[in-house]
Task: structure prediction
Amino acid sequence: MDLTERAYGLAESLLSEPLPRRWSHSLGVAERARSLRPILGEDAALMEAAAVLHDIGYSPRIAITGFHPLDGARFLREQEGMDERVVRLVAHHSCALLEAEERGLREELEAEFELEHSELVDALIFCDMTTTPDGEQTTSRARLEEIVGRYGPETIVGRFIQRAAPEIHAAVERVEHRLTTVGAAGQPM
Result:
């Protein structure tokens, strides 16, 4: 079984029944990852696997700390022996260090999981932050507004996402620029 097949099966087993909307979101994020193949090259399968797995830490079966990037990454590393690069992307997806800081877990996250290459970090931010909770495509601005509206501006998630907004929008713009450049040149950068 290849990496992406394994990732889809695992994510489905953890999310589809207890959290069907989260599962729809994860499928949409994975679809966005597939759309980035022209700029990802040999990392395309890795990104798709990370995309479908990025939110497994919400699963009631594995949630321990209540901080889904950390819970998901630990589970993937310790229980599943998943590819280390996928684990690092899950651990740090969508500016997770800023949310970890809000939760008093930044040092723990940094000590356990190295950051992945910036182009892949940007790509996962793009995929996650341009996909609605129902798996549809959206803009990063609309997505952040939705998150703040759902959680509230003064909650941990609301505060974190507002702090992360400039980096999220910048990452989305970098990915869009890379896609435009590839489209103009007809080949990956």
About this structure: The CA atoms of residues 150 and 157 lie 10 Å apart. The first helix runs from residue 3 to 15. The chain has eleven helices and no strands.
